[in-house]
Amino acid sequence: MAEMTVELVAVERRIWSGSANFVLARTTVGEIGVLPGHEPTLAQLEEAGVVRVDGADGTSTTLAVHGGFLSITPDNVTVLAEYAELADEIDVSRARAALDRADTSEPDGAAAAARANARLKAAGAAEH
């Protein structure tokens, strides 16, 4: 199966780097799935979303991403995030508490709720 090089980078650190078969991300204009050989694309990531990378070794890496960009070439995908957190690093109880505290009637509260929901979704603990 074809592969591409993927890098997930946040402002404070490199999160993940390696070979992958597929990347799924949510941009400001919708969800995008990327396979090797994809048309070159530059997209703004949703303010609070989830990115999934299916590694060439059969593993899947999921993370919560807050802001940033997605850069795609036929052989490479780079996610440049303002903030990103791997699913297994997410403290679900803290994310739920943040969601409970968020005042969605305020713009900052709505953004905080969206970030908390993205963290819960990435961790597989989203409330339906």
UniProtKB/TrEMBL annotation:
Its main location: membrane. Keywords: ATP synthesis, Cell membrane, CF(1), Hydrogen ion transport, Ion transport, Membrane, Transport. It comes from the Bacteria. Residues 4-84 form the ATP synthase F1 complex delta/epsilon subunit N-terminal domain. CDD domains: F1-ATPase_delta. It is found in: Cell membrane. Signal peptide: none annotated. It is a peripheral membrane protein. InterPro entries: ATP_synth_F1_dsu/esu, ATP_synth_F1_dsu/esu_N, ATPsynth_dsu/esu_N. Produces ATP from ADP in the presence of a proton gradient across the membrane. Belongs to the ATPase epsilon chain family. F-type ATPases have 2 components, CF(1) - the catalytic core - and CF(0) - the membrane proton channel. CF(1) has five subunits: alpha(3), beta(3), gamma(1), delta(1), epsilon(1). CF(0) has three main subunits: a, b and c. This is ATP synthase epsilon chain.
